[in-house]
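**Protein fold record**
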Amino acid sequence: MKSLQSKVILIVAGVFVLFGIVNFGIQRLIIFPSFLALEQDEAIKDSKRIIRAIKREVHHLDSLTHDRSSRDDTYEFVKSPSKEYTEANLAADAFLTID
């Protein structure tokens, strides 16, 4: 009786070891490379989206600064800063109108 029990335990342990090896092999050879490729594709897409957003923001800021810099009162403000210019042009409300 004891030899039958030890044989069953040995067979069950062997099945678990075999399952572990097959599972590891499938994950290492099939799932991991596919997952890695998916992660890299998503990272590239996200990077491109971030670059587009940054370029869009830089273009918007460039347009804003170009518009502000062409005014005579901006030149005067650079020469001698004044509180009136700051309150009129650099207040938070002024930037709400330009999104």
Summary: Residues 2-69 form the longest helix (68 residues). DSSP finds four helices and no strands in the chain. The radius of gyration is 34 Å.
